[in-house]
Specification:
This protein is of the alpha/beta class. The protein contains ten helices and 14 strands. The longest helix is centred in the middle third of the chain and has 16 residues. It is elongated and about 75 Å long.
Length: about 300
């Protein structure tokens, strides 16, 4: 487990992180979310020991991390850069050596990743010859080349087409199955919904929300249910009366509708059904959870 404990970070008069504590479990993908300038990149750089915190610490399995621990970290920063005059194979081998890999591991890993991405013929290409998308692949491979235990990715899908986004997502799922700890900082809420087990939302230097994706969506929802029914719409609306609010409705056939209803006060799903059953024929009803984009917008536009 990676644990961030009571991190405070200041840059002169600016407070970048205000007493932030987070636990990141192994074998899970954790989304680190927040608006630009919220403090999430600062947090990532502290975990990578690029910046020291003013207060607090970062722990791996209960022990305070040091620079030696960085050999177990794979980091893909948002600001990308490579040695443009090096060949792809030589570049990856060079970075693997810096991470402490032995000769046999270096060549085994190189062939594995070039095969995985179908780019064996890039091995002797100079990096300056690569397109932006090609370079992005090499940068991703460079971050995970040494098979790290902790993988930190800052906007990893930037610049990738849908085919390569699917490939990267598959690789991350494989790492998750291998028990890696994966931190994913992104503004791509679709990727958060599809990949992440847990999310943490940082806003104005504070952690304002943390939990599983399902829990976060449930806790920040507005208790909205969709009801598919046959009957009279006026009877439906009349039955709702004061305890529920009709948000919208859609006609799907003769006297057949799907209506979205918000629960008010202490009313629950059961009371909604009990209210409606005498007036209409219910064919289906389900809760409509907010998307992660809805959660992000709502939580970052309210005052905490």
């Amino acid at each position: 487990m990676l644990e961030v404990r009571n991190i405070i970070k200041r840059f002169d008069a600016k407070l970048a992180l205000d007493n932030v504590s987070i636990k990141f479990e192994s074998g899970k993908i954790h989304g680190i979310l927040g608006p630009n300038g919220a403090g999430k990149t600062t947090l990532i750089r502290i975990i990578n020991q690029i910046f020291p915190p003013n207060e607090g610490g970062v722990y791996w399995n209960g022990k305070l991390i040091n620079r030696k621990f960085l050999q177990h970290v794979g980091y893909l920063p948002e600001e990308r850069g490579m040695y443009s005059n090096m060949e792809v194979g030589a570049y990856l081998i060079f970075l693997g050596k810096l991470r402490g890999l032995e000769k046999e591991e270096l060549h085994t890993n190189l062939n594995y990743w070039l095969d995985k991405f179908g780019i064996q013929d890039w091995k002797h290409k100079r990096i300056e010859e690569l397109s932006k998308g090609m370079a992005q692949k090499i940068q991703f491979i460079a971050a995970v080349f040494h098979n790290p235990d902790l993988i930190i990715l800052d906007e990893p899908f930037s610049g990738f087409d849908p085919v390569n986004v699917k490939l990267i997502r598959g690789v991350l799922r494989d790492f998750k199955e291998d028990g890696k700890t994966i931190l994913l900082s992104t503004h791509n809420m679709n990727s958060v919904e599809e990949l992440c087990d847990n999310v943490v939302l940082i806003h104005q230097s504070k952690k304002i929300l943390e939990g599983t994706v399902e829990k976060v969506k449930t806790n920040t929802g507005e208790r909205v249910y969709a009801v598919q029914f046959t009957g009279n719409m006026i009877a439906f609306v009349t039955a709702l009366w004061a305890g529920f609010e009709l948000i919208d409705k859609k006609i799907i056939g003769d006297n057949k509708y799907i209506a979205r209803v918000k629960l008010l006060g202490d009313n629950d799903f059961k009371s909604l059904l009990n209210t409606l059953i005498p007036s209409i024929d219910i064919e289906g009803a389900w809760e409509e959870l907010p998307t992660m984009e809805d959660v992000f917008i709502r939580e970052t536009t309210v005052t905490h």
